[in-house]
Design goal:
Elements: E1 6-14, E2 19-28, E3 32-37, H1 44-51, E4 59-64, E5 67-68, H2 73-77, E6 80-83, H3 95-105, H4 111-121, H5 137-149, E7 155-159, H6 167-180, E8 185-189, H7 193-199, E9 202-207, E10 210-216, H8 217-221, E11 228-233, H9 239-243, E12 248-253, E13 258-263, H10 269-280, E14 284-289, H11 294-301
Parallel strand pairs: 3-8, 3-9, 6-7, 7-8
Antiparallel strand pairs: 1-2, 1-4, 4-5, 9-10, 11-13, 11-14, 12-13
Bound molecules: adenosine-5'-triphosphate (ATP).
Amino acid sequence: MKNPIVKVEHLSHRYAVQWAIEDINFEIEAGGIVGLLGSNGAGKSTTMNIICGVLNQTRGEVYIDGVNLREHPVEAKKNIGFLPQKPPIYPDLTVEEYLRFCADLRFVEDIPSAVNKAMSRCGITHFKDRLIRNLSGGYQQRVGIAQAIVHDPKFVILDEPTNGLDPNQIMEVRNLIREIALDRTVLLSTHILSEVQATCRDIMMIECGHVVFSGSVDDFDNYIKPNTLFVCFERPPLEDELLTIEGIFKVQKINERNYRLWFSGGRDVAKDIVKCSVNKGWELEEIHFEKSSLDAVFAKLSNKEIRE
Ligand SMILES: Nc1ncnc2c1ncn2[C@@H]1O[C@H](COP(=O)(O)OP(=O)(O)OP(=O)(O)O)[C@@H](O)[C@H]1O
């Protein structure tokens, strides 16, 4: 990767005796949203806390936009925004007071302009004089996101930002995340796989302190190669006739016209089914490979079995 916004090299950390993460290596390309997945205790928070400079790693290096976080923490942190799982908001301050305080902590020069920009970006300008305690959960989360971008960082980490919100608030916060990712890179930690599918460009998955997957959402989606086909015929054949097609080794009759076929070998089996159907007049209406769910991929990468 030419100029990654984040580069992590041989990152390891142990709190006591056991390693919480061990020899983690990855690069994040600038722009868009990257989903961070992993089971409870996998090492996500440890990794995020180190990347944000909140926790000092036992070994390894982190570079933010090419700046070594351990050697130049102040410079590197100018380009990091962080929304932890529990937003660090002060309920007794108004939205504007709180954001001014955060901008000051971040050494922002023109505080009023930076605060106005962050409030406008997060759609909270109309609540600027309201005490944070009197905002709904969704708006409090917007304030949390505003504090993460008030110093205009190139890289923002959001730790389960939609946790505890109602479905409408989830949609609103998701749209906001998409908007703020238009001109910066976002690392989004979440347990909700549909959220990753709906918002992320790439996925990174950590299990037992190691990176077990890193790639596009499509690659994650296709991680388990399909081995079943769904077919629907207008004039269905007998099950035994389907078994004569090369590669098909099991047939399940779903109802009068629909079947699930288990196959081995390549995807050419679909062509053979189409040919056979034309030759024998079965009048094929629908055929598609059945994909595994994201849950099944997640379970496989976590070395757990689930029944679909
Ligand atoms: N402060 C700590 N002291 C000792 N062990 C810790 C500490 N924080 C985390 N751990 C351990 O380190 C490992 C990784 O934990 P971490 O919190 O990074 O996982 P996680 O993926 O963020 O989990 P979750 O999704 O539950 O937040 C776990 O085994 C955890 O018990």
